[in-house]
TrEMBL record:
<protein>
    <recommendedName>
        <fullName>HTH marR-type domain-containing protein</fullName>
    </recommendedName>
</protein>
<dbReference type="InterPro" id="IPR036390">
    <property type="entry name" value="WH_DNA-bd_sf"/>
</dbReference>
<keyword id="KW-0175">Coiled coil</keyword>
<feature type="region of interest" description="Disordered">
    <location>
        <begin position="1"/>
        <end position="22"/>
    </location>
</feature>
<dbReference type="Pfam" id="PF24033">
    <property type="entry name" value="DUF7342"/>
</dbReference>
<dbReference type="InterPro" id="IPR055766">
    <property type="entry name" value="DUF7342"/>
</dbReference>
<feature type="coiled-coil region">
    <location>
        <begin position="89"/>
        <end position="116"/>
    </location>
</feature>
Length: 180
């Protein structure tokens, strides 16, 4: 037996990342506000260093801290993420026309769901699951569509913003050339 086969297996995350790296990864991926303890547990790191990393991320504008509830929670700053995504779209290899086409496709998909299910929102679609005649596959399909619908609504806002602010989001060198 070689030395490597005698060592207990550890996850890739633990072998190749520091505790701070893991906290940053977990904190940026949460979909709802989470406490220090929850993030520390997910990152497999202790409470105090996790709290210090989270506070730095708040200071850097990456996370938002909410102290209004029973426990302080942290969540990504979605405005910052949306701006970064808009810049990424602007700097990508797509033209404004291609993004406009994609925007139309997303809106058409939502209109199709509205017509197919005779609803106006993802939550209204979820409510149709109460129909006792639906099979479990149909229920699962409606849940998946509701999640995709919410995702498309977010994407429409970001893509729309990128299109509206196309010139503003251009790299500064491109703006300087355009003004000359």
């Amino acid at each position: 037996m070689d030395k490597d086969s005698e060592e207990p297996e550890t996850g890739l995350m633990e072998r190749q990342t520091t505790g701070e790296d893991r906290v940053r990864m977990v904190a940026r991926q949460v979909s709802e506000p989470r406490t220090v303890n929850w993030i520390a547990s997910e990152a497999e790191w202790s409470h105090e260093p996790t709290k210090r990393v989270l506070e730095r991320l708040v200071d850097d504008g990456v996370l938002r801290r909410d102290e209004s509830g029973a426990h302080t929670t942290y969540s990504p700053d979605y405005r910052r993420q949306a701006m970064q995504e808009a810049v990424r779209l602007r700097d990508g290899h797509r033209t404004v026309e291609e993004l406009t086409d994609r925007l139309s496709e997303m809106k058409a998909q939502i209109r199709d769901w509205e017509e197919t299910f005779a609803v106006e929102s993802p939550n209204q679609l979820r409510a149709t699951i109460a129909d006792e005649t639906l099979s479990s596959d149909e229920e699962a399909q409606r849940r998946a569509i509701a999640r995709e619908w919410e995702h498309l609504q977010q994407r429409i806002q970001i893509v729309g913003f990128a299109i509206r602010e196309w010139d503003f989001l251009a790299p500064s060198a491109d703006r300087a050339e355009a003004s000359n």
